[in-house]
Amino acid sequence: MAHRIGFLGTASLVAHVVLLLATVSEGRAQEVPDAGTVQVNSRLVYVDIVARDRSGQVIRGLTQQDFKIEEDGRQQKVDFFAAHSFDPADQAAGKNLPPPVMPQLQFTNVPRGQVAGAINIILFDLLNTPRSDLLYARKQLLAFLKEMPPGQSVALFVLSDRLRMVQNFTGSSDRLLAAAQAINPTDMSFIRSKSEAQQDDDFIAYFSQNIGYDPGGSAEKLKASEGNQEATLQDNRGYITVAALAELARACGGYPGRKNLLWLSEDFPVSVGAQITDSRFRRGTADMAQARETADLIANSQISVYPINLLGLEEAGIPSSSSGIGSVSGIGGPSGSTMHPQMGDTNQHQFSARQDLRFAANDLADQTGGEAFVGTNDFAGALRRSMLDGANYYTIAYRPSNDKWNGQFRKIHVELVGRGGSLDYRHGYYADPDTHPQGDSVRDLHIAMQPATPESTMLGLRARVGLPSAKHPNVSVDSALDPSNAGFTTTADGKHHAQFLVLLIALNDGEQQVAAPPQTSGVLKLDLAPDQYKIAMTTGVPLHQELTLKPGKYRLRLGVSDLSTHNLGTIDMPVEIGPVSGAGR
Q1: What span, in angstroms and rounded, lies between the C-alpha atoms of 485 and 494?
Q2: Same domain, 151 and 52
Q3: What residues contact residue 459 under an 8 Å CB cut-off, 6+ apart?
Q4: Sheet with 461-466: strands ordered across
């Protein structure tokens, strides 16, 4: 059972900038204007691009001069360009290095191993897929993992009533396969299959046609009740899905470069582009504010979505070319009999629903720079193509010539210069200011500290745990915060200022959680002179915290939330505390 964790209070935390640990993530300093501050605008827009020739094959070896990039019709000056190339043959030869192994009782939320191409997230969606389609999808997932391209960094997540990470980033096919085999496709499903929906519609139509005396309008009431129930489930799925994508973005945002999200699902109830603000905003995608926040997180984390529609090639039910109605199991009039007009609506409903699914998948891919796979039963092949194509890409970064951060959607256009081909890239972003209500940081840190929530990596952390001894009876945690993704303000005297919420809790590993686990929390205020700021960006900001714990197995979770940018960092530290003996350590 999941247990909620609350804040017990705040205490002052003092941090001194010293040479402690190396920085743990690449990022950009974002300066947020405030009263009495000087704004330093270093905001960069990153665009990852997959280039294909006319036959659909990826193009390698392009240079910065081969691309032209525009924002809202105005050409932009490129500040950064990089080409990323991945060859499975090279990885099979052992050229990819595994992530370094951390020493005992030392932890990090962003391992710094060398990874070729992009990192990959497989999301197996039980929530938005009917059970009847999950078994075949799981079989295809297992087939893909058995023959997964070598040298790739892959994490496996499952979405049911909430997001769950079943395997952290790894290049081991065996680990991923073992994790996937443990997934039970019958755990969760809020969505009916197309055949189930068709049968329900036909039953209601038959009921209305054949019940001669129906003064209470039973058929209409049944249809209305079914519609209300379906709408409620759709809204619930939308809220859960959007929240899960936000968690995913926070979980991988600290890893440098492109992330490919390979999303196995039948429905994709999320909007990420310009359609959030117009009439195409889909019912069931939560409210617009939540959708926009998630869209920003996806863009800032450089996530490209590859929707793989598990509806596949339908052979049963009503084909899109049909103009008749579906069969109704166990009921029906004589052959050739005239049916109620409502029954003919079933085929139109199914066709429209299928078109909506196709649009949602294609639009999601188009807006994030991925590729949609609709109308195929080869899900393993779709996974392989997504992973390989998404590992060969180009990164362009530019400072927008429009410096007004007014929340408007800005369109990005990239084209190849002097040659043919097609490009996949995200087509825009919201120019939202880097300011957030302080309450949002508290709320998000509270969510991030829950036991089942994956680690957040948008703020990099390294930590070392010291076990109790006779001389030092408390558990100590010495950590370093990488502030490169933090929102600093700069005052006229040249000092840099930032504030963070810091929370350390101790969870009983594998046991029932207590309502208020041992924890320590506080507000970290940084007021750094220029030389201190430079050191902090190079070596990290050190923190020291202590907890008094009884002997046992624990999972310490350290969380840091930037009060300015909303960025989060959390790190899990499993430890076992034995009886204290001896004179000291």
Answers
A1: 19
A2: no
A3: 25, 254, 481, 482, 483, 485, 486, 560, 562, 567, 568, 569
A4: 106-108, 461-466, 475-481, 541-547
- Chain segment 352-392, per-residue pLDDT in tens: 667 778 888 888 999 999 999 998 999 999 999 999 888 89
3-class secondary-structure state, position 526 = strand
Per residue in 312-336, pLDDT (tens digit) is 765 544 443 333 333 333 334 444 4
Residue 382 sits in the same domain as residue 514: no
Q: What letter represents residue 155's amino acid?
A: A
* Rg of the Cα atoms in the chain: 26
Q: Are residues 50 and 137 in the same domain?
A: no
Higher pLDDT, 280 or 535: 535
Range of the domain at 53: 45-76+393-430
Instruction: Give the separation between CA 577 and CA 575, rounded to whole angstroms.
Output: 7
Please indicate, yes or no, whether residues 372 and 449 belong to a single structural domain of this protein. no
pTM summary value: 0.75
Written as one string, the DSSP assignment of 457-501 is BSS-EEEEEE---SS--SEEEEEEE-GGGSEEEEETTS-EEEEEE
pLDDT for 37 equals: 38
Q: Return d(Cα 126, Cα 239) in angstroms, integer.
A: 15
Tell me if 301 is assigned to some domain.
yes
d(CA 171, CA 314): 34
Tell me what the pLDDT averaged over the chain comes to.
77
Indicate if 412 and 460 belong to the same structural domain.
Answer: no
Percent composition of the chain: helix, strand, coil (DSSP 3-state, to 5): 30, 25, 45
